[in-house]
Design goal:
By secondary structure, this protein is of the alpha/beta class. The chain has a single domain, classed as Rossmann fold (3-Layer(aba) Sandwich). About 35% of the residues lie in helices and about 35% in strands. The chain is built from five helices and eight strands; from the N terminus they run αββαβααβββββα. Strands 1-8-7-4-2-3 form a six-stranded mixed sheet. A two-stranded antiparallel ribbon has the order 5-6. The two termini are about 45 Å apart.
Length: about 200
């Protein structure tokens, strides 16, 4: 009986974890140029736009994006590796063009912050049953759980994908996320759905 209870409990916890993971990123607004749908790009320059004091965050974000793009079968390089970034972090168009020519990029993807907000949530206490006398015990006690509150920072980002030759916007999406890795994954999935990236 206790084994069944434990299996049910761990199964329920797994479902909760999966729900939380799926809820980590939303992509409520997207746009795609129909003329480019079905014409996947193959080599992307990744640019993260941020404030001077967040330079390490930008580099980390770009590197993660590059890793996930390569895992999806796309060549990619970060602006941190392709361009000598000025101290004021203001990238000039000429520098970007030099980089895409040097690394044969056919697309540039740019992500920038548009807003963020703090959200508090409270998880109610749950009562977990546990056998007091081992496997054969009939009496069950309750393990108290006091519950907890947490504050999450929801970040809103805009990501734009541009064609290098025409400099036209191919795809744009606004995301709301708690986790950058998850946000990148959701963006790549939508690009694949629109046949703008190769499907593995």
């Amino acid at each position: 009986m206790r084994q069944i209870t434990l299996k049910w409990f761990f199964g329920a916890m797994l479902i909760v974890v999966l729900i939380i993971a799926c809820a980590g990123t939303k992509l409520p607004h997207t746009w795609v140029d129909e003329a480019y749908r079905g014409k996947p790009v193959s080599n992307i320059l990744v640019i993260g736009v941020t404030y001077k004091e967040k330079e390490k965050v930008r580099r980390s974000f770009e590197d993660k994006f590059v890793i996930q793009l390569k895992a999806a079968g796309v060549e990619a390089i970060s602006s941190g590796d392709a361009i000598s970034i000025p101290k004021d972090l203001e990238l000039e168009k000429d520098e970007v063009l030099k980089a895409v020519n040097k690394f044969n990029n056919d697309a540039v993807i740019i992500t920038h912050l548009v807003g963020k907000e703090e959200k508090e949530s409270y998880t109610r206490p749950v009562r977990l049953s546990g056998g007091q006398y081992g496997y054969h015990g009939r009496a069950h006690g309750y393990i108290p759980n006091t519950g907890y509150s947490r504050t999450d920072t929801i970040v809103r980002l805009v990501t734009n994908l541009y064609d290098v030759k025409t400099e036209k916007l191919i795809w744009s999406g606004q995301s709301e996320t708690l986790d950058m890795d998850d946000m990148i994954k959701v963006v790549i999935k939508d690009l694949q759905k629109n046949n703008l990236l190769p499907k593995k």
